[in-house]
Amino acid sequence: MPTFVYMTRCDGCGHCVDICPSDIMHIDKTYRRAYNIEPNMCWDCYSCVKACPQNAISSRGYADFAPLGHSVRALREEEKGTISWKVKFRDGREKNFVSPIRTTAWGSIQSPQDYTAPNAGDYKSQELSHEPDALNIEGGLPVLDSSKLKEGVS
Ligand code: SF4
Ligand code: SF4
Protein backbone atom coordinates (compact mmCIF):
# COMPACT_ATOMS: atom_id res chain seq x y z
CA MET A 1 0.00 0.00 0.00
CA PRO A 2 1.37 3.41 -0.83
CA THR A 3 0.87 6.35 1.47
CA PHE A 4 -2.60 7.19 2.71
CA VAL A 5 -3.42 10.53 4.37
CA TYR A 6 -5.99 10.73 7.14
CA MET A 7 -7.79 13.92 6.18
CA THR A 8 -9.04 14.65 9.68
CA ARG A 9 -5.49 14.78 11.00
CA CYS A 10 -3.74 16.57 8.12
CA ASP A 11 -3.49 20.34 8.51
CA GLY A 12 -2.06 20.99 5.05
CA CYS A 13 1.40 22.10 6.30
CA GLY A 14 3.08 20.71 3.17
CA HIS A 15 6.11 19.03 4.81
CA CYS A 16 5.29 15.79 3.00
CA VAL A 17 5.10 17.69 -0.30
CA ASP A 18 8.54 19.19 0.24
CA ILE A 19 10.28 15.99 1.23
CA CYS A 20 8.82 13.41 -1.18
CA PRO A 21 11.61 12.31 -3.55
CA SER A 22 9.00 11.15 -6.09
CA ASP A 23 7.15 14.49 -5.99
CA ILE A 24 3.82 12.73 -5.63
CA MET A 25 2.51 14.22 -2.39
CA HIS A 26 0.38 17.20 -3.34
CA ILE A 27 -2.07 19.48 -1.55
CA ASP A 28 -5.65 19.22 -2.75
CA LYS A 29 -6.66 22.73 -3.83
CA THR A 30 -10.23 22.39 -2.59
CA TYR A 31 -9.76 20.62 0.73
CA ARG A 32 -6.26 21.95 1.55
CA ARG A 33 -5.14 18.49 2.60
CA ALA A 34 -2.31 16.34 1.29
CA TYR A 35 -2.84 13.30 -0.89
CA ASN A 36 -0.77 10.94 -2.98
CA ILE A 37 -1.38 11.80 -6.63
CA GLU A 38 0.35 8.73 -8.05
CA PRO A 39 0.26 5.73 -5.70
CA ASN A 40 1.99 3.52 -8.27
CA MET A 41 5.08 5.70 -8.02
CA CYS A 42 5.31 5.56 -4.23
CA TRP A 43 8.15 3.36 -3.06
CA ASP A 44 7.25 3.55 0.63
CA CYS A 45 10.45 5.35 1.48
CA TYR A 46 8.80 6.72 4.64
CA SER A 47 10.21 10.22 4.21
CA CYS A 48 6.77 11.81 4.30
CA VAL A 49 5.53 9.49 7.03
CA LYS A 50 8.36 10.56 9.34
CA ALA A 51 8.20 14.21 8.35
CA CYS A 52 4.49 14.61 9.05
CA PRO A 53 4.05 16.46 12.36
CA GLN A 54 0.40 15.37 12.59
CA ASN A 55 1.04 11.64 12.30
CA ALA A 56 -1.48 11.77 9.48
CA ILE A 57 0.10 9.39 6.97
CA SER A 58 0.08 5.60 6.97
CA SER A 59 2.04 3.42 4.62
CA ARG A 60 3.11 -0.16 4.03
CA GLY A 61 5.91 -1.68 6.06
CA TYR A 62 8.58 -3.81 4.52
CA ALA A 63 8.10 -7.56 4.52
CA ASP A 64 10.90 -8.04 7.00
CA PHE A 65 8.82 -6.61 9.83
CA ALA A 66 5.19 -7.15 8.84
CA PRO A 67 3.38 -9.47 6.42
CA LEU A 68 1.15 -8.22 3.60
CA GLY A 69 -2.14 -6.61 4.37
CA HIS A 70 -1.06 -4.34 7.21
CA SER A 71 -0.58 -0.60 7.60
CA VAL A 72 2.06 1.33 9.48
CA ARG A 73 2.04 4.73 11.07
CA ALA A 74 5.09 6.44 12.49
CA LEU A 75 5.39 9.40 14.83
CA ARG A 76 8.76 11.15 14.75
CA GLU A 77 9.45 13.16 17.90
CA GLU A 78 12.61 15.17 17.49
CA GLU A 79 12.76 16.39 21.09
CA LYS A 80 12.57 12.83 22.46
CA GLY A 81 14.88 11.46 19.77
CA THR A 82 12.41 8.68 18.98
CA ILE A 83 10.14 7.31 16.29
CA SER A 84 7.05 5.52 17.58
CA TRP A 85 5.70 2.86 15.23
CA LYS A 86 2.20 1.44 15.13
CA VAL A 87 1.74 -1.63 12.94
CA LYS A 88 -1.84 -2.75 12.34
CA PHE A 89 -2.03 -6.33 11.07
CA ARG A 90 -4.80 -7.58 8.80
CA ASP A 91 -6.23 -9.77 11.56
CA GLY A 92 -6.74 -6.67 13.71
CA ARG A 93 -3.76 -7.10 16.01
CA GLU A 94 -1.54 -4.13 16.67
CA LYS A 95 2.13 -3.86 17.47
CA ASN A 96 3.64 -0.70 18.93
CA PHE A 97 7.33 -0.09 19.36
CA VAL A 98 9.76 2.79 19.65
CA SER A 99 13.10 3.18 17.90
CA PRO A 100 15.75 5.90 18.23
CA ILE A 101 16.20 8.51 15.52
CA ARG A 102 19.50 7.89 13.80
CA THR A 103 21.10 11.25 14.34
CA THR A 104 23.62 12.72 11.99
CA ALA A 105 24.41 16.25 13.06
CA TRP A 106 22.89 18.80 10.72
CA GLY A 107 25.47 20.01 8.21
CA SER A 108 28.00 17.33 9.18
CA ILE A 109 27.74 15.35 5.94
CA GLN A 110 30.40 16.42 3.48
CA SER A 111 29.40 17.07 -0.08
CA PRO A 112 31.40 15.45 -2.92
CA GLN A 113 33.16 18.78 -3.52
CA ASP A 114 34.60 18.65 0.00
CA TYR A 115 36.62 15.53 -0.83
CA THR A 116 39.88 15.45 -2.71
CA ALA A 117 39.34 14.66 -6.40
CA PRO A 118 40.27 11.05 -7.27
CA ASN A 119 43.42 10.37 -9.27
CA ALA A 120 43.85 7.83 -12.08
CA GLY A 121 45.04 5.11 -9.67
CA ASP A 122 41.91 5.42 -7.54
CA TYR A 123 39.77 4.18 -10.41
CA LYS A 124 41.56 0.82 -10.28
CA SER A 125 41.10 0.47 -6.54
CA GLN A 126 38.64 -1.96 -4.97
CA GLU A 127 37.53 0.80 -2.65
CA LEU A 128 34.49 2.89 -3.36
CA SER A 129 34.37 6.64 -3.10
CA HIS A 130 35.24 7.91 0.40
CA GLU A 131 36.34 4.45 1.55
CA PRO A 132 37.86 3.44 3.87
CA ASP A 133 37.18 6.65 5.87
CA ALA A 134 33.41 6.35 5.40
CA LEU A 135 33.47 2.80 6.82
CA ASN A 136 35.13 3.88 10.07
CA ILE A 137 37.58 0.97 9.76
CA GLU A 138 41.05 1.48 11.22
CA GLY A 139 43.84 0.63 8.77
CA GLY A 140 41.77 0.12 5.62
CA LEU A 141 39.65 -2.73 4.30
CA PRO A 142 40.40 -6.28 5.49
CA VAL A 143 42.35 -8.38 2.96
CA LEU A 144 42.68 -12.13 2.50
CA ASP A 145 45.95 -13.51 3.79
CA SER A 146 47.05 -16.29 1.39
CA SER A 147 48.97 -18.04 4.17
CA LYS A 148 45.67 -18.73 5.88
CA LEU A 149 44.05 -20.31 2.81
CA LYS A 150 43.89 -24.12 2.62
CA GLU A 151 45.15 -25.76 -0.54
CA GLY A 152 43.33 -28.61 -2.19
CA VAL A 153 39.88 -27.70 -0.95
CA SER A 154 37.38 -27.91 -3.79
FE1 SF4 B 1 6.83 10.01 -1.47
FE2 SF4 B 1 8.25 8.29 0.00
FE3 SF4 B 1 5.96 9.34 0.94
FE4 SF4 B 1 5.88 7.54 -1.03
S1 SF4 B 1 6.59 7.17 1.09
S2 SF4 B 1 4.72 9.46 -0.95
S3 SF4 B 1 7.72 8.07 -2.19
S4 SF4 B 1 7.87 10.44 0.48
FE1 SF4 C 1 -0.77 16.89 6.01
FE2 SF4 C 1 1.18 15.64 7.34
FE3 SF4 C 1 1.50 16.30 4.77
FE4 SF4 C 1 1.48 18.21 6.66
S1 SF4 C 1 3.03 16.58 6.41
S2 SF4 C 1 0.43 18.25 4.65
S3 SF4 C 1 -0.04 17.36 8.07
S4 SF4 C 1 0.00 14.83 5.59
Report on this model:
With 154 residues, this protein is mostly beta strands. It has 2 domains: 3-100, Alpha-Beta Plaits (2-Layer Sandwich), CATH 3.30.70.20; 112-141, no CATH class. It is built from 2 helices and 7 strands; from the N terminus they run βαββαββββ. It has helices at residues 15-19, 47-51; strands at 4-5, 25-27, 34-36, 57-59, 71-77, 82-88, 94-100. The chain has a 5-stranded antiparallel sheet with strand order 1-4-5-6-7. A two-stranded antiparallel ribbon has the order 2-3. The longest helix has 5 residues, at 15-19. The model has no long low-confidence stretch (mean pLDDT 86). One iron/sulfur cluster binds at residues 5, 10-16, 34, 51-52, 54, 56-57.
How do you describe this structure in short?
The protein is mainly beta and 154 residues long. It has two helices and seven strands; from the N terminus they run βαββαββββ. One iron/sulfur cluster is lined by residues 2-3, 19-22, 24-25, 36, 42-48, 59.
Write the layout of secondary structure elements.
Blueprint (H helix, E strand, L loop, with lengths): L3 E2 L9 H5 L5 E3 L6 E3 L10 H5 L5 E3 L11 E7 L4 E7 L5 E7 L54
Antiparallel strand pairs: 1-4, 2-3, 4-5, 5-6, 6-7
Bound molecules: iron/sulfur cluster (2 copies).
The site of one iron/sulfur cluster (SF4) has 14 residues, from helix 1.
